[in-house]
Amino acid sequence: MSLLSSLQNFDIDLNPNPVVALKVPSTENQEDVPFHVHRKGQLILTLQGGVTCLAPHAYWMVPANCAAWMPAGVPHSNRVTANAHVLFLYIEPDVPGLPQECCTLNISVMLREMIKHFADFPQDYAKKTYYADFAQIMLHELSLMPVERLSLPISDNSKIRTLADSLMENPGDRSSLDRWANRLAMSKRTFERFIKKETGMTFGRWRQQLHLLVAIRLLVTGSSVQTTAYELGYDSVTAFITMFKKALGKTPGRFLDER
């Protein structure tokens, strides 16, 4: 059964419990879940591989042992890498302590194992049972998880979406600022102002953050550090490792070891 068919057979918004889990089957190929919205909030926990999430104002990369949090009512889409192993939690909108904005959360080993255990529980568990008590403890732990800097700011402007999609698909494109401005029918100065307005970053800083997300996606799906650096258009592996460590405080090798 595919990811899409699993979701089509699962109407979570009819379930009144504070939190409900859904196991997602792994697939051999990458799968895309188009834009959709839930009455409940959604936590997307990656146990293996990676997930890229798109919401109205940002892309999020969700490597193994991290989770994307999508508050209730936020439209979003998901792209799951080949052979990924993912769990979904659907959480009622009135549960206190959870972030009000979309984000990536670093999930502790204990919470990860709690969520995996919870995913085996019946979805229609009753109040004042072991299942309900366990759910409340798990939600409290979730509210304590730190936010990871694994997002790329965008906007609903079609040009910034086109730019982001192009660089996601071809991250090794090292075209100059002038060339990108020409592609979007802007002067260099107008393009610089446009990027700053839509993302809050300079073009160079924004593209580097995009490279970081793509790098993580490649690394968690088995690409070597050397191949990843080449795919991103870096002149040397050392330059790529320096960028990665500056952004996340650890080398790509250490990042993978921790996953």
From TrEMBL:
Lineage of the species this protein comes from: Bacteria, Pseudomonadati, Pseudomonadota, Gammaproteobacteria, Enterobacterales
Pfam family, any one: HTH_18
Keyword Transcription regulation: yes
InterPro entries xrefs: AraC-bd (IPR003313), Homeodomain-like_sf (IPR009057), HTH_AraC (IPR018060), RmlC-like_jellyroll (IPR014710), RmlC_Cupin_sf (IPR011051)
Ranges for domain HTH araC/xylS-type: 158-258
Native source species: Biostraticola tofi
Superkingdom assignment: Bacteria
Example GO molecular function: sequence-specific DNA binding
Signal peptide: none
Protein name: AraC family transcriptional regulator
Keyword list, A-Z: DNA-binding, Repressor, Transcription, Transcription regulation
